[in-house]
Amino acid sequence: MSSIAVPMLLDTIAGRIGFVSTVTIFGTPVDITLSELAIEAFFPADAESAALLQRLAGG
C-alpha cells in the first residue's frame, strides 16, 4: 500500500488518533520580515479519528 502522507499517530486514553499536517509559509524567500512565518495545521487522518475528536470536544 502506498500513501502520499505519513500520519502522526497518538495513543491516548480515549484511543488512537491519527493526524495529517499541512504547512503554509507566508512571504517570499527575499522578504526577511515574513521569511520565518509559517502555520502548521493538523487534520484528522481518518473517519475514526474525526469521530473521536468530535466526542472529546463534546460535539
Fold and architecture overview:
It contains one helix and three strands. By secondary structure, the protein is α+β, with helices and mostly antiparallel strands. It has a three-stranded antiparallel β-sheet. The longest helix is centred in the C-terminal third of the chain and has 11 residues, at 47-57. The N and C termini lie far apart (33 Å).
Please tag this protein with its features.
59 residues, alpha+beta, three-stranded antiparallel beta sheet, 1 helix, 39% strand, elongated
Overall helicity = 10-25%
- Characterize the main sheet: 3 strands, antiparallel
Mean residue pLDDT: 83
Major beta sheet, strand line-up = 1-2-3
SS class: alpha+beta
Question: H/E order of the elements?
Answer: EEEH
Q: Which residue ranges are poorly predicted, with pLDDT under 50 across at least 5 consecutive positions?
A: none
Principal-axes geometry comes out as elongated
Annotation field: number of helices: 1
Tally the beta strands: 3
As a whole number of angstroms, the C-alpha radius of gyration is 16 Å
Q: How far is it from the N-terminal to the C-terminal residue, by CA?
A: 33 Å
Q: Which strand-content bin applies to the residues? A: 35-45%
Give me a quick take on this structure:
The chain has one helix at residues 47-57; strands at 8-12, 15-25, 38-44. It has 59 residues and is α+β, with helices and mostly antiparallel strands.
Write the topology of this structure.
Elements: E1 8-12, E2 15-25, E3 38-44, H1 47-57
Antiparallel strand pairs: 1-2, 2-3
